[in-house]
UniProtKB/TrEMBL annotation:
<dbReference type="GO" id="GO:0005737">
    <property type="term" value="C:cytoplasm"/>
</dbReference>
<dbReference type="GO" id="GO:0004649">
    <property type="term" value="F:poly(ADP-ribose) glycohydrolase activity"/>
</dbReference>
<protein>
    <submittedName>
        <fullName>Uncharacterized protein</fullName>
    </submittedName>
</protein>
<dbReference type="InterPro" id="IPR007724">
    <property type="entry name" value="Poly_GlycHdrlase"/>
</dbReference>
<dbReference type="GO" id="GO:0005634">
    <property type="term" value="C:nucleus"/>
</dbReference>
<dbReference type="GO" id="GO:0005975">
    <property type="term" value="P:carbohydrate metabolic process"/>
</dbReference>
<dbReference type="GO" id="GO:1990966">
    <property type="term" value="P:ATP generation from poly-ADP-D-ribose"/>
</dbReference>
<dbReference type="GO" id="GO:0006282">
    <property type="term" value="P:regulation of DNA repair"/>
</dbReference>
<dbReference type="GO" id="GO:0009225">
    <property type="term" value="P:nucleotide-sugar metabolic process"/>
</dbReference>
Length: 90
């Protein structure tokens, strides 16, 4: 099990990086949020969306790469929720 603890603002990127690493290695992820219920709920929403989109590790890396160069006004979670996996490659 991979564990990471993050709290406060700016926690979106580490969550996705840890999800990518856990997915690549086939390990479970325990993500500690220090009782930040907003982060818990938003991460779960993104996780469910990614499952429904059948996102791969490659897709997660593409989300991170495109977000870092294009979408500074949205949070990473909002960017993912507004961007389908198929649009990453068009």
């Amino acid at each position: 099990m991979m564990m990471m603890s993050v709290g406060g603002n700016g926690s979106n990127r580490p969550a996705i990086i840890q999800l990518t690493a856990a997915s690549q290695t086939g390990r479970s992820l325990a993500y500690l949020t220090f009782r930040d219920q907003d982060l818990v709920m938003s991460f779960y929403k993104v996780y469910e969306y990614l499952l429904n989109e059948k996102a791969t590790v490659k897709d997660l890396c593409n989300y991170l790469q495109q977000y870092s160069t294009l979408y500074k006004k949205l949070s990473l979670f909002d960017y993912i929720l507004q961007t389908s996996v198929s649009s990453l490659y068009s």
